[in-house]
């Protein structure tokens, strides 16, 4: 029987608890735990074995919390487990990841990702040892490839690679969000595949791959795709409320959600982050993101070429950043922790749903009540 089976088996859970903690104090004497380890086979990955050794060897009270042991042996870590290692007076005995040698190319990349994304050495060690190629980080890669393919198709068709929105045929695309077509619900999402020109596509694709792929590797496809698509949806809905006559193109809502979440996480965990040149890179990222917003504002209010209608709005950038700082920051700070058990997560979900319902009613009734003159759809 494995140690995990001995502790968690339904038939032996009560008896094992009595054996390990006969006085029912909630703590296991180190002697009892050591005996259990010696007489039962351990089938653990190196990171979990390190945690077990840390719980036993560095405990000044000479006892191990029974609940911490249960949570450690389960497949998911919990907040109490994190506190037991990170906030207690317990240390990991092995050297830090940067000191490990003889790593292959992929494992070196995994180590690089760990130091880019995670602020805690325990989390970095955990991610490094449990990382697997399956499932691969495909969401950001697929979105980027589709965006490039769509841009290439329209570039060839229009024979124009910059300021494509000034071409009427571009604005006729069924993917572009236009207020005159807001009844076509898919446009609130599909606009992320269209871009003003090569400069916007290049900027978005570069940030998606440099920040989105490492984030997806660490936090998984479900969380990162949720964050990205929440930024995209919030972008188009915000434009429909605040810039009611303007269309929207580009994946900037999702990109700014990812970037803002990551930058906010770096700032809030500044001391723990070990990515090189973090101050210089932070300044460079903020300058580039601000420049992109400034370019979008310029194109919206001072178009360089005559156009048949308003140019795409810049509000998707700002709303994506808000989603990143709120929802995204909580996701990034909850590495391998359950979001459903956190009250703040439900507050954010409730707020987003409230915003979504308000935007739906706004799009149904406000345009007519306010008498907004929508430019004729192409």
TrEMBL record:
The UniProt record lists the EC number as: 3.4.21.105
Q: What Gene3D superfamilies does the entry give? A: EF-hand (1.10.238.10), Rhomboid-like (1.20.1540.10)
Q: Which domain of life is it from?
A: Eukaryota
Annotated catalytic residues: 252, 317
Q: Please provide the record's keywords in A-Z order.
A: Hydrolase, Membrane, Protease, Serine protease, Transmembrane, Transmembrane helix
How this chain sits in the membrane, per its record, is: Multi-pass membrane protein
**Uppermost EC category:** hydrolase
Q: Which GO terms describe its cellular component?
A: membrane
Q: Where is the Peptidase S54 rhomboid domain?
A: 183-333
Which GO MF term does the entry hold, naming one? serine-type endopeptidase activity
Q: Which GO terms describe its biological process?
A: proteolysis
Transport recorded as keyword: no
Per its UniProt record, what Pfam families does this chain match?
Answer: Rhomboid (PF01694)
Q: Which family does it belong to?
A: Belongs to the peptidase S54 family.
Task of the protein: May be involved in regulated intramembrane proteolysis and the subsequent release of functional polypeptides from their membrane anchors.
Instruction: Kindly provide the name given to this protein in its UniProt entry.
Output: Rhomboid-related protein 1
